[in-house]
Amino acid sequence: MSSKPVSNCVGELAWPDIQWFQKQSDIVMIPVGSLEQHGAHLPTLCDSLAVQEITKRISAATDVPYYPLVWTGYAPHHLKTPEKGYGTVTLRPSTFCDLMYDIARSAIHHGWNKIIFLFGHASNAKIADPIFRKLRYDTGAMIGLYKPYSERDLHLIRDVMTGPVEDTPGWHAGEMETSEMMAINEKWVHLDRAVKEHTHTPSYLPKSFLKEDGAADVLFENERFLVFPMEHMEFTDSGTIGDPFAATKEKGEIVFQRYADYGVKVIEELKKVPSPKVFQREFNNRCDW
Hints:
Layout: H1 15-24, E1 27-32, H2 46-62, H3 93-109, E2 114-119, H4 122-139, E3 142-146, H5 175-184, E4 209-210, E5 217-220, E6 223-227, H6 249-271
Helix pairs in contact: 2-5, 2-6, 3-4, 5-6
Protein backbone atom coordinates (compact mmCIF):
# COMPACT_ATOMS: atom_id res chain seq x y z
CA MET A 1 0.00 0.00 0.00
CA SER A 2 1.51 3.34 -1.04
CA SER A 3 -1.21 5.96 -0.37
CA LYS A 4 -1.81 7.37 3.08
CA PRO A 5 -4.76 5.77 4.92
CA VAL A 6 -7.94 7.78 5.34
CA SER A 7 -7.72 7.72 9.16
CA ASN A 8 -4.98 7.83 11.79
CA CYS A 9 -7.01 5.83 14.33
CA VAL A 10 -6.01 2.18 14.56
CA GLY A 11 -9.62 1.24 15.23
CA GLU A 12 -10.65 2.65 11.86
CA LEU A 13 -7.91 0.89 9.88
CA ALA A 14 -7.37 -2.50 8.28
CA TRP A 15 -4.01 -4.18 8.80
CA PRO A 16 -2.41 -2.94 5.52
CA ASP A 17 -3.16 0.62 6.70
CA ILE A 18 -1.52 -0.08 10.06
CA GLN A 19 1.56 -1.37 8.25
CA TRP A 20 1.71 1.89 6.27
CA PHE A 21 2.07 3.82 9.53
CA GLN A 22 4.68 1.40 10.85
CA LYS A 23 6.84 2.18 7.82
CA GLN A 24 6.77 5.85 8.84
CA SER A 25 7.80 5.33 12.49
CA ASP A 26 7.67 2.81 15.34
CA ILE A 27 5.57 5.03 17.65
CA VAL A 28 1.92 4.62 18.55
CA MET A 29 -0.19 6.66 20.98
CA ILE A 30 -2.78 5.42 23.49
CA PRO A 31 -5.16 8.12 24.82
CA VAL A 32 -6.75 7.37 28.20
CA GLY A 33 -9.36 9.51 29.90
CA SER A 34 -12.03 9.18 32.56
CA LEU A 35 -15.80 9.19 32.97
CA GLU A 36 -16.57 11.25 36.06
CA GLN A 37 -18.77 14.03 37.37
CA HIS A 38 -17.63 17.51 36.36
CA GLY A 39 -20.06 19.62 38.32
CA ALA A 40 -23.58 20.27 37.08
CA HIS A 41 -22.46 22.01 33.89
CA LEU A 42 -19.96 19.75 32.06
CA PRO A 43 -20.24 16.28 30.50
CA THR A 44 -18.93 13.32 32.47
CA LEU A 45 -16.67 12.46 29.53
CA CYS A 46 -14.80 15.78 29.87
CA ASP A 47 -11.30 14.37 30.52
CA SER A 48 -11.69 11.80 27.76
CA LEU A 49 -12.93 14.28 25.16
CA ALA A 50 -10.05 16.63 25.89
CA VAL A 51 -7.27 14.06 25.62
CA GLN A 52 -8.84 12.57 22.51
CA GLU A 53 -8.88 15.97 20.81
CA ILE A 54 -5.24 16.64 21.67
CA THR A 55 -4.21 13.16 20.51
CA LYS A 56 -5.95 13.64 17.16
CA ARG A 57 -4.16 16.94 16.59
CA ILE A 58 -0.76 15.47 17.42
CA SER A 59 -1.44 12.53 15.13
CA ALA A 60 -2.51 14.74 12.21
CA ALA A 61 0.72 16.72 12.46
CA THR A 62 3.11 13.77 12.89
CA ASP A 63 1.59 10.80 11.05
CA VAL A 64 1.85 8.83 14.29
CA PRO A 65 -1.34 6.80 14.76
CA TYR A 66 -3.34 6.28 17.92
CA TYR A 67 -5.49 3.59 19.44
CA PRO A 68 -9.17 4.32 20.13
CA LEU A 69 -9.80 6.25 23.32
CA VAL A 70 -9.91 4.39 26.62
CA TRP A 71 -12.87 6.28 28.03
CA THR A 72 -12.73 5.36 31.71
CA GLY A 73 -10.02 5.28 34.35
CA TYR A 74 -9.28 5.46 38.07
CA ALA A 75 -11.69 7.89 39.75
CA PRO A 76 -12.97 6.41 43.04
CA HIS A 77 -13.10 9.83 44.70
CA HIS A 78 -15.69 11.03 42.15
CA LEU A 79 -18.40 8.41 42.76
CA LYS A 80 -20.13 10.64 45.31
CA THR A 81 -23.40 9.64 47.05
CA PRO A 82 -25.16 6.43 45.90
CA GLU A 83 -28.49 6.55 44.03
CA LYS A 84 -28.00 10.14 42.85
CA GLY A 85 -27.04 9.49 39.22
CA TYR A 86 -23.71 11.30 39.22
CA GLY A 87 -22.49 9.09 36.39
CA THR A 88 -18.89 8.37 37.38
CA VAL A 89 -17.39 5.04 36.34
CA THR A 90 -14.20 4.00 38.12
CA LEU A 91 -11.92 1.06 37.53
CA ARG A 92 -10.23 -0.67 40.43
CA PRO A 93 -6.45 -0.14 40.36
CA SER A 94 -5.81 -3.76 39.37
CA THR A 95 -8.36 -3.53 36.54
CA PHE A 96 -6.93 -0.27 35.26
CA CYS A 97 -3.35 -1.54 35.32
CA ASP A 98 -4.32 -4.82 33.65
CA LEU A 99 -6.13 -2.89 30.93
CA MET A 100 -3.15 -0.60 30.26
CA TYR A 101 -0.80 -3.58 30.19
CA ASP A 102 -2.92 -5.63 27.82
CA ILE A 103 -3.49 -2.81 25.33
CA ALA A 104 0.19 -1.89 25.24
CA ARG A 105 1.30 -5.50 25.22
CA SER A 106 -0.92 -6.15 22.20
CA ALA A 107 0.53 -3.11 20.45
CA ILE A 108 4.06 -4.39 21.08
CA HIS A 109 3.04 -7.82 19.76
CA HIS A 110 2.03 -6.18 16.48
CA GLY A 111 5.34 -4.40 15.98
CA TRP A 112 5.23 -1.07 17.81
CA ASN A 113 8.41 -0.32 19.77
CA LYS A 114 7.58 3.05 21.37
CA ILE A 115 4.30 3.27 23.25
CA ILE A 116 3.20 6.75 24.30
CA PHE A 117 0.24 6.96 26.66
CA LEU A 118 -1.66 10.24 26.90
CA PHE A 119 -3.61 10.68 30.13
CA GLY A 120 -6.42 13.22 30.35
CA HIS A 121 -7.08 12.46 34.03
CA ALA A 122 -4.48 13.10 36.72
CA SER A 123 -5.46 10.26 39.04
CA ASN A 124 -4.69 7.68 36.35
CA ALA A 125 -1.02 8.60 36.69
CA LYS A 126 -1.08 7.92 40.44
CA ILE A 127 -1.31 4.17 39.89
CA ALA A 128 0.28 3.69 36.46
CA ASP A 129 4.02 3.70 37.19
CA PRO A 130 4.30 0.01 38.18
CA ILE A 131 2.56 -1.16 35.02
CA PHE A 132 4.65 1.10 32.79
CA ARG A 133 7.79 -0.31 34.37
CA LYS A 134 6.50 -3.85 33.98
CA LEU A 135 5.90 -3.27 30.28
CA ARG A 136 9.45 -2.05 29.87
CA TYR A 137 11.00 -4.83 31.95
CA ASP A 138 8.90 -7.54 30.26
CA THR A 139 9.51 -6.44 26.68
CA GLY A 140 12.27 -3.85 26.33
CA ALA A 141 9.89 -1.45 24.58
CA MET A 142 10.04 2.29 25.23
CA ILE A 143 7.10 3.39 27.37
CA GLY A 144 6.21 7.07 27.79
CA LEU A 145 3.45 9.17 29.34
CA TYR A 146 2.31 12.63 28.23
CA LYS A 147 -0.08 14.46 30.58
CA PRO A 148 -1.60 17.29 28.52
CA TYR A 149 -3.49 19.11 31.23
CA SER A 150 -2.87 21.89 33.72
CA GLU A 151 -3.59 21.98 37.38
CA ARG A 152 -1.04 23.87 39.45
CA ASP A 153 1.40 24.10 36.54
CA LEU A 154 -0.05 26.61 34.10
CA HIS A 155 3.09 27.83 32.33
CA LEU A 156 1.96 26.70 28.85
CA ILE A 157 -1.36 28.51 29.12
CA ARG A 158 -0.92 31.11 31.85
CA ASP A 159 -1.46 33.94 29.36
CA VAL A 160 -4.70 32.35 28.16
CA MET A 161 -6.33 31.85 31.56
CA THR A 162 -7.64 35.17 32.83
CA GLY A 163 -8.54 33.89 36.27
CA PRO A 164 -6.05 34.65 39.06
CA VAL A 165 -4.03 31.86 40.64
CA GLU A 166 -6.34 31.76 43.66
CA ASP A 167 -9.21 30.90 41.30
CA THR A 168 -7.34 27.69 40.35
CA PRO A 169 -8.16 28.05 36.62
CA GLY A 170 -6.72 24.66 35.64
CA TRP A 171 -8.69 22.61 38.12
CA HIS A 172 -11.80 20.48 37.96
CA ALA A 173 -14.62 21.91 35.80
CA GLY A 174 -13.16 25.40 36.15
CA GLU A 175 -11.99 27.90 33.55
CA MET A 176 -9.73 25.60 31.52
CA GLU A 177 -11.93 22.50 31.31
CA THR A 178 -15.07 24.52 30.65
CA SER A 179 -13.25 26.32 27.83
CA GLU A 180 -12.12 22.99 26.38
CA MET A 181 -15.65 21.61 26.35
CA MET A 182 -16.94 24.81 24.73
CA ALA A 183 -14.38 24.30 21.97
CA ILE A 184 -15.64 20.74 21.39
CA ASN A 185 -19.39 21.34 21.64
CA GLU A 186 -20.94 24.38 23.29
CA LYS A 187 -24.28 22.55 23.52
CA TRP A 188 -22.74 20.24 26.13
CA VAL A 189 -21.85 23.15 28.46
CA HIS A 190 -24.63 24.38 30.77
CA LEU A 191 -23.40 27.61 32.33
CA ASP A 192 -26.87 28.25 33.72
CA ARG A 193 -26.14 25.38 36.14
CA ALA A 194 -22.53 26.32 36.87
CA VAL A 195 -21.17 27.70 40.12
CA LYS A 196 -17.87 29.27 41.04
CA GLU A 197 -16.38 27.43 44.00
CA HIS A 198 -13.11 27.22 45.86
CA THR A 199 -12.11 24.14 47.82
CA HIS A 200 -12.55 24.02 51.56
CA THR A 201 -10.95 21.97 54.29
CA PRO A 202 -12.93 18.77 54.99
CA SER A 203 -15.04 19.03 58.12
CA TYR A 204 -13.10 16.31 59.94
CA LEU A 205 -9.80 18.26 59.78
CA PRO A 206 -8.89 21.28 61.90
CA LYS A 207 -8.94 24.60 60.05
CA SER A 208 -5.16 24.76 60.47
CA PHE A 209 -5.06 22.28 57.58
CA LEU A 210 -5.74 24.11 54.31
CA LYS A 211 -7.14 22.36 51.22
CA GLU A 212 -6.15 24.79 48.46
CA ASP A 213 -7.15 22.88 45.32
CA GLY A 214 -7.76 19.35 44.03
CA ALA A 215 -4.28 17.96 44.64
CA ALA A 216 -3.80 15.13 47.09
CA ASP A 217 -1.80 17.20 49.57
CA VAL A 218 -2.92 19.75 52.15
CA LEU A 219 -1.12 22.81 53.47
CA PHE A 220 -0.05 22.91 57.12
CA GLU A 221 2.19 25.69 58.44
CA ASN A 222 2.94 26.69 54.83
CA GLU A 223 4.29 23.25 53.89
CA ARG A 224 2.73 20.52 51.75
CA PHE A 225 4.09 17.44 53.49
CA LEU A 226 0.72 15.84 54.26
CA VAL A 227 -1.68 13.72 52.25
CA PHE A 228 -5.09 12.41 53.33
CA PRO A 229 -7.18 10.24 51.00
CA MET A 230 -10.32 12.27 50.38
CA GLU A 231 -13.58 12.09 48.53
CA HIS A 232 -14.01 14.94 46.06
CA MET A 233 -17.28 15.96 47.71
CA GLU A 234 -15.47 16.42 51.04
CA PHE A 235 -13.72 19.55 49.80
CA THR A 236 -16.06 20.88 47.07
CA ASP A 237 -19.83 20.87 47.44
CA SER A 238 -20.67 21.32 43.76
CA GLY A 239 -17.93 19.18 42.21
CA THR A 240 -16.43 22.30 40.62
CA ILE A 241 -13.08 23.85 41.53
CA GLY A 242 -12.56 27.33 40.11
CA ASP A 243 -14.47 29.77 37.95
CA PRO A 244 -16.24 28.30 34.92
CA PHE A 245 -17.74 31.70 34.07
CA ALA A 246 -14.32 32.89 32.88
CA ALA A 247 -14.34 30.22 30.14
CA THR A 248 -14.66 30.85 26.40
CA LYS A 249 -14.61 28.68 23.31
CA GLU A 250 -11.62 30.64 22.01
CA LYS A 251 -9.60 29.85 25.12
CA GLY A 252 -10.39 26.17 24.73
CA GLU A 253 -9.17 26.15 21.16
CA ILE A 254 -5.88 27.80 22.17
CA VAL A 255 -5.40 25.35 25.06
CA PHE A 256 -5.92 22.36 22.78
CA GLN A 257 -3.47 23.70 20.22
CA ARG A 258 -0.80 24.58 22.80
CA TYR A 259 -0.84 21.07 24.24
CA ALA A 260 -0.95 19.53 20.79
CA ASP A 261 2.00 21.63 19.62
CA TYR A 262 4.00 20.55 22.66
CA GLY A 263 3.11 16.91 21.97
CA VAL A 264 4.17 17.26 18.34
CA LYS A 265 7.62 18.43 19.45
CA VAL A 266 7.88 15.44 21.78
CA ILE A 267 6.87 12.95 19.09
CA GLU A 268 9.22 14.41 16.48
CA GLU A 269 12.12 14.11 18.93
CA LEU A 270 11.16 10.54 19.81
CA LYS A 271 11.23 9.62 16.12
CA LYS A 272 14.96 10.32 16.25
CA VAL A 273 15.53 7.86 19.10
CA PRO A 274 16.98 4.54 17.87
CA SER A 275 14.42 1.79 18.00
CA PRO A 276 14.72 -0.13 21.29
CA LYS A 277 15.55 -3.81 21.16
CA VAL A 278 12.31 -5.58 22.00
CA PHE A 279 13.32 -8.95 23.43
CA GLN A 280 9.80 -10.31 24.01
CA ARG A 281 7.51 -9.47 21.11
CA GLU A 282 4.87 -12.17 21.26
CA PHE A 283 2.16 -11.70 23.88
CA ASN A 284 2.53 -15.26 25.18
CA ASN A 285 0.65 -14.83 28.44
CA ARG A 286 -2.38 -13.29 26.77
CA CYS A 287 -4.72 -15.87 28.31
CA ASP A 288 -3.41 -15.79 31.87
CA TRP A 289 -6.24 -15.78 34.37
